[in-house]
Design brief:
16 strands; 4-stranded antiparallel β-sheet; binds 2-deoxy-6-O-sulfo-2-(sulfoamino)-alpha-D-glucopyranose; single chain; binds calcium ion
């Protein structure tokens, strides 16, 4: 009886314990087999148009502070060697949306239509149950697919009182400054249209700081009073370079327009003696003199334009060529950076909204540009070249709990990788045909095994505005090798370590003979890996000649 009792007591005491332990084991086994799925993050993909990394505080800018964009860097990761596959607007966007190189997605230039039968990554998000939206500049020739809500600028769009194409096919005009308006639309969507049950993919795409760099009047005035440091290569004479650098039409002195770009009134240049030597646009579709602008808006711009014009009238006739270059550089920087300042303020509005609405924690925020840009380096504005300032693009990513705050990464990553990165973060399978690599290992781990040691680049839009010749090439940590073709056949090699400004083409220098042989083999291998070839080059030349009405080379 005693024993019985004690047996019973033992059962009473240990029974639940055994069950608890067994239950615990079962629970922990179950946990190993089926981990609780992580909640899928929201994603905000922020892209500006032509935003050079040289104009971002987080990249050590000596030109401007960007405290809001820098918040993404401070709370996330800065990629110091992010680059594009083709440094021009619509082709870059096609690569981002498809995860494929230009020669595969077919969007070789800004003019050619995009083949919409291809899969673009927002469609995959939509299929996977994400709510998707896009606001701002797409510049694609087509409306986006896989996007529940959108308001996109037609083509390049306008800085003041921009029109937007809506999902219903209407075009509506919104009064205000474009960077503010795009942000208003984005915040309105977050506030009123967001489905709180679903994760979202939101593409927030600025027009600024695209040419012709019209700032909002208050910023226009503020930046007019500033002077900026000149880049070391402002007076580049393109000696020791190829034909392509010498013939490109993007030099501040010879190609930047006094009226269209530097904001000198046409009636002033017309009466100046001697007449300023630069050709001018006739249209002026996108400036405060156009019909779309209200009298009040014009009145806000006038006193600032008065100051710029008075200074020009007084000083320009006596300026040397060198002084004209310097004057144009300062004018350019004042307007370009004033546009950036608005972008930065507005990025801050979006980040604040996320904080205030407790969305920051589970939202991946990406900041990038469709390519880099020349801010007077080599005497240039615009982009297109495989050379550094246009080839590199800013890339900052914040994703709390997943990315350690304030880290930097030097790997050669590309806009080709963006789609796969976002898809993996959202736990969506990427299609086989995508050619990039997910950056997730680099975002979330210090010890990621990243094996890429070279990237491939190919630019096609020639003949065209700025006349940058067609070229493709390979970039490694140490070298850059490019082949310029079509109406020339020239190779260029830059030693990135010894010549970071890329002013000395060492192709043909016997000391680099072995480097050239090795790099050419590597380039061939990359072209094969990605499916590019001389036959495809010819195919795209033929298409260009068939479609182009303005090609000076037509028939050649
Ligand atoms: C416009 C610009 C060019 C620029 C292209 C492409 N001229 O034509 O300077 O290179 O767009 O830019 S503009 O003064 O009329 O804006 S892209 O970013 O869309 O590729
Ligand atoms: Ca662009």
């Amino acid at each position: 009886m005693k024993n019985k009792t004690s047996n019973f007591q033992i059962k009473i005491i240990f029974g639940p314990l055994v069950l608890f332990i067994l239950g615990g084991v079962a629970f922990s086994c179950k946990k190993e087999v089926e981990p609780k799925p992580k909640p899928r993050p929201n994603i905000i993909f922020i892209m500006s148009d032509d935003h050079a990394y040289q104009a971002i505080g987080a990249y050590g800018s000596t030109l401007i502070n960007t405290p809001n964009i820098d918040r993404i860097a401070q709370e996330g990761i800065t990629f110091t060697n992010a680059c594009v596959t083709n440094s021009i607007c619509a082709p870059s966007r096609a690569t981002i949306l498809t995860g494929k190189h230009t020669h595969i997605n077919g969007k070789t230039d800004n003019r050619r239509p995009f083949d919409t039968t291809q899969v673009t990554f927002p469609e995959l998000f939509q299929d996977a149950g994400y709510q998707t939206a896009m606001f701002g500049k797409l510049h694609f020739g087509n409306n986006p697919k896989g996007v529940d809500d959108f308001m996109i600028l037609p083509g390049q769009g306008s800085y003041i009182n921009p029109d937007f194409i809506t999902k219903t096919g209407d075009t509506i005009r919104k009064e205000g400054y474009v960077t503010d308006v795009i942000t208003d639309l984005t915040l309105e969507w977050l506030d009123k249209k967001r489905d709180t049950v679903k994760p979202f993919l939101l593409m927030y795409l600025h027009k600024a700081p695209h040419r012709p760099w019209w700032p909002r009047p208050d910023k226009f005035e503020e930046y007019l009073g500033k002077t900026f440091p000149e880049p070391a290569t402002l007076f580049d004479d393109y000696k020791n370079r190829g034909t392509a650098a010498k013939t490109a039409e993007m030099n501040l002195l010879t190609d930047m327009m006094y009226n269209h770009d530097s904001k000198i009134r046409p009636k002033l240049t017309a009466k100046m003696k001697p007449t300023p030597e630069v050709p001018e646009y006739e249209g002026g579709f996108d400036n405060p003199y156009s019909n779309r602008v209200t009298e009040a808006q014009k009145a806000a711009y006038e006193p600032i334009l008065d100051k710029i014009n008075a200074d020009f009238e007084k000083n320009w006739p006596d300026m040397t060529q060198e002084e004209k270059m310097r004057w144009k550089y300062q004018r350019y920087m004042q307007d370009y950076l004033a546009c950036i300042s608005s972008v930065d303020d507005n990025v801050g509005r979006v980040l604040d909204y996320l904080d205030e609405n407790k969305l920051s924690d589970n939202t991946m925020v990406i900041y990038t540009s469709d390519q880099g840009f020349y801010l007077g380096e080599h005497g240039w504005f615009d982009k297109r070249f495989i050379y550094n300032e246009s080839f590199k693009t800013p890339l900052l990513v914040r994703w709390p709990h997943e990315i350690k705050p304030g880290i930097t990464n030097e790997e050669m990553v590309q806009n080709l990788d963006f789609a796969q990165t976002m898809l993996e973060a959202a736990q969506i399978q990427a299609p086989e045909e995508m050619q990039g690599e997910s950056l997730l290992p680099l975002l979330t781990s210090n010890e990621a095994n990243w094996t890429r040691d070279a990237v491939y680049y190919h630019y096609y839009e020639y003949p065209a505005v700025h006349q940058v010749k067609r070229h493709y090439g390979i970039v490694t940590v140490d070298y850059k090798l490019a082949h310029f073709y079509y109406d020339i056949d020239e190779w260029e090699l830059y030693d990135r370590k010894k010549d970071p400004n890329e002013t000395n083409n060492v192709y043909g220098n016997p000391e680099y003979a072995t480097v050239v042989t090795t790099l050419k083999q590597k380039l061939d291998a990359l072209r094969e890996q990605y499916g590019d070839s001389d036959e495809l080059n010819q195919k795209y030349i033929d298409i260009h000649l068939e479609n182009s009405i303005d090609s000076p080379l037509k028939g050649k």
